[in-house]
């Protein structure tokens, strides 16, 4: 299984396309099962499957870090939380009964879908392929500074800009080097305040959840 | 895999979430549907981050390179924030479900119609 | 470079496919064997009971789980999300500390302190104890 032979056999974009449609079908199928299946525990399992398929789609979109976070937080924690809730609350296997306004709900969902699809196809998106400026392209692929002597990134990034045509190709195909590190920089440089507020939100969620469950009025009933 | 395709996937997930929120009585199913909607938003954010470029960047003569990265990966940071908020929301929501279950022995939305115990 | 990215994750995907196929295939093979009378199925009430370490089972269904399990799930989820934010910061800390100095450390320490406050609350309220 030599790698050069493999790369000659297929075109990457075609494989990525096929993988995208496969995982999109899995994600949507799982989501449909979540809202239609009667047993809540089965719904939780389908939800975990849907999350896993979405994680694969994040990897296809070159968001490696988000894909890992999706598996870590959604598949590993949120699904487990829901499964715990279903197991602890005993009467849930009796089923999740449908509410009265199902036709209204289906209509609302269909209208939402139509509106979003209409907007998607009637907006003139600024495509990443339209970019021509070489500095911007170098920035997009993660090569920040040309001058190694003044750059704070010099030791890590090497400080060189690669051949323009190759860089352009990568930028057009959306290649972003080291998204994990770039997110770390963004968190400290641009989004410090939201970051701190999120810490407050997490603390509030934990304290609120514990306070609700430790409340003597709701305990031991 | 174009931007439109990914956005359609996001729209489909969001619509399924809306249907789930409105058509089920169990609070746990409602919470799961809300999680689906959160995920739809994350998909959209990452798709924009991957395929589009801020209009301000396309027309600038020679932007600072670091600025390009900053603008291009903002979608990823949004995605991390959304995931964190969604996790906090589901943790707190299920705690409320537990409290309701202990007081009322039920997990159906229609039974939680009064504010008093 | 892009080809490398997809080839590497493609290999990971291939690995996952094989890891799922082998056990599922074995179970499917075993199930298929019951149709060609290689693996006869003669159910008796004794065979159908759950195995509980040799003891005769004393409750028909697994009883309800304790509420206290949820405390640990809650604490775990918050810690999980906290880690998600620490990781990208740790990856770039060397560069960030050059650029921002002590601020890069202080911002994360404040975040950690706020979340630790919630854990202190959990500790004080004895949510960590199994009583």
Secondary-structure map:
The complex is a heterotrimer of chains A (about 220), B (about 120) and C (about 130).
Chain A: H1 3-9, H2 12-36, H3 40-60, H4 64-88, H5 102-121, H6 134-140, H7 154-157, H8 164-172, H9 179-189, H10 192-214
Helix pairs in contact in A: 2-3, 3-4, 6-8
Chain B: H1 3-23, H2 27-51, H3 55-59, H4 65-72, H5 74-104
Chain C: H1 2-33, H2 45-48, H3 68-91, H4 93-100, H5 102-124
Helix pairs in contact in C: 3-5, 4-5
Task: Tell me about this structure.
The complex is a heterotrimer of chains A (221), B (117) and C (131). Chain A starts with a helix and ends in a 7-residue tail after the last helix. Residues 1-9 and 142-167 of chain A have low confidence and may be disordered. Chain A has 221 residues and is mainly α. Chain A is 69% helix and 0% strand. Chain A is globular. Chain B has 117 residues and is mainly alpha-helical. Chain B has one domain: Helix Hairpins (Orthogonal Bundle). In chain B, 77% of the residues lie in helices and 0% in strands. Chain B has helices at 3-23, 27-51, 55-59, 65-72, 74-104. The radius of gyration of chain B is 20 Å and the shape is elongated. The termini of chain B are far apart. Mean pLDDT of chain B is 80; it is low at 59-66. By secondary structure, chain C is mainly α. Chain C folds into two domains: 2-48; 68-124. The longest helix of chain C is centred in the first third of the chain and has 32 residues, at 2-33. At the A-B interface, helix 2, helix 3, helix 4, helix 5 and helix 6 of A face helix 1, helix 2, helix 3, helix 4 and helix 5 of B.
In short:
The complex is a heterotrimer of chains A (221), B (117) and C (131). Chain A is 69% helix and 0% strand. Chain A is mostly helical and 221 residues long.
Structural class of chain B: mainly alpha
Can you summarize the main beta sheet of chain B?
none
* Biggest interface, CB < 8 A: A-B, 104 and 91 residues
Would you list the SSEs of chain B in sequence order as H and E?
Answer: HHHHH
**Beta-sheet strand percentage of chain C?**
under 5%
Strand count of chain B: 0
Percentage of residues in strands of chain B? under 5%
Instruction: Based on Cα principal axes, name the global outline of chain C.
Output: flat
Q: What's the rounded overall pLDDT mean of chain C? A: 83
Rg measurement of chain C, Å: 26 Å
């Amino acid at each position: 299984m030599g790698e050069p032979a493999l790369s000659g056999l297929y075109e990457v974009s075609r494989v990525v396309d096929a993988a995208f449609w496969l995982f999109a079908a899995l994600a949507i199928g799982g989501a449909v099962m979540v809202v239609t299946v009667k047993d809540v525990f089965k719904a939780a399992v389908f939800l975990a499957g849907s999350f896993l398929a979405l994680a694969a789609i994040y990897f296809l979109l070159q968001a490696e870090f988000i894909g890992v976070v999706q598996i870590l937080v959604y598949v590993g924690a949120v699904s487990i939380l829901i499964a715990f809730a279903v197991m602890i609350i005993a009467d849930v296997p009796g089923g999740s009964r449908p509410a009265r306004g199902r036709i209204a709900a289906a209509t609302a969902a269909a209208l939402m879908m139509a509106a979003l699809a209409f907007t998607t196809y009637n907006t003139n998106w600024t495509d990443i392929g339209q970019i021509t400026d070489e500095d911007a392209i170098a920035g997009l692929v993660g090569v920040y500074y040309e001058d190694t002597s003044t750059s704070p990134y010099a030791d890590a990034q090497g400080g060189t800009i690669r051949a323009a045509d190759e860089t352009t190709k990568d930028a057009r195909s959306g290649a972003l080097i080291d998204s994990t590190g770039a997110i770390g920089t963004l968190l400290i440089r641009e989004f410090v305040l939201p970051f701190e507020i999120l810490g407050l939100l997490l603390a509030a969620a934990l304290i609120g959840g514990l306070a609700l469950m430790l409340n003597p009025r709701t305990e031991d009933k | 895999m174009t931007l439109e395709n990914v956005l359609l996937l996001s729209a489909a997930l969001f619509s399924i979430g809306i249907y789930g929120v409105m058509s089920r009585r169990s609070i746990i199913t409602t919470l799961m549907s809300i999680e689906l909607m959160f995920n739809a938003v994350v998909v959209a954010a990452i798709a924009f981050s991957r395929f589009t470029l801020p209009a301000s960047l396309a027309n600038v003569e020679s932007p600072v390179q670091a600025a390009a990265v900053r603008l291009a990966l903002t979608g990823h940071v949004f995605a991390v924030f959304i995931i964190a908020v969604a996790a906090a929301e589901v943790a707190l929501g299920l705690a409320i479900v537990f409290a309701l279950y202990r007081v009322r022995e039920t997990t159906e939305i229609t039974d939680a119609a009064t504010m008093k115990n | 470079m892009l080809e490398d990215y997809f080839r590497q994750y493609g290999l990971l995907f291939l690995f996952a496919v094989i890891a799922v196929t082998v056990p599922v295939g074995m179970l499917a093979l075993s199930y298929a064997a019951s149709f060609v009378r290689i693996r006869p199925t003669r159910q008796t009430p004794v065979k159908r009971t759950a195995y509980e370490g040799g003891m005769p089972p004393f409750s028909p269904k697994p009883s309800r789980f304790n509420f206290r399990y949820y405390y640990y799930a809650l604490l775990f989820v918050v810690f999980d999300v906290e880690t998600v934010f620490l990781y990208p910061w740790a990856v770039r800390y060397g560069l960030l500390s050059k650029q921002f100095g002590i601020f890069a450390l202080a911002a994360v320490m404040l975040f950690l302190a706020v979340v630790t406050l919630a854990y202190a609350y959990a500790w004080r309220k004895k949510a960590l104890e199994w009583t």
